[in-house]
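Deliverable D4.2, example record:
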Amino acid sequence: MELTVLSKKVVVFDYGFGNIRSAERALARVGAEVEITRDFDKAMNADGLLVPGVGAFAACMQGLRAARGDWVVDRRLSGGRPVLGICVGMQILFARGIEHGVAAEGLDEWPGTVEPLQADVVPHMGWNTVDAPADSELFAGLDADARFYFVHSYAVHDWALESHNPLIAAPKVTWSTHGKPFVAAVENGALWATQFHPEKSGDAGAQLLTNWIGTL
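Output generated by the structure prediction step:
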């Protein structure tokens, strides 16, 4: 697979949670200039910011706040500057997460609750397809049967945010199914996110990252 060479600066935000080296390699593969850092100014000034995440929702939020990542995300989005969240880095963008019956506050960029997967087998681990909107920019150039790599026990099952202003594009929501359907990706202005790991999803993931960087 030939990938378009891109020359955009992307910061992978290092707040102690996430497969940052895998993300770095995947972004470099598609031609981005990548830096792993928690430096506030570098994160603010990059063309794109990638927020990874693995582990527990509450712990990720605690780590993000300790590194001022909540400020970085908020300030970037206030200025219309692109942010991509991956796995728990997507989950913490929602209003709250519930793990083991305990609720924790998220960044509240989107309404909704991250809750346990409603499936016979948990975690959801391995390759799965997604159902993306026809006009998705994130999944442009990818076949409908493209598969992505998931590792998670929690997800958002209900999408609550819609746009009633004809001048503002409604968020584009992509779904997948493991037991009950769940949100697999979101495109909402400058804020995009995936529940799966594009950095572990081979050529399909590389095309998706190429698509994101192409919008920076």
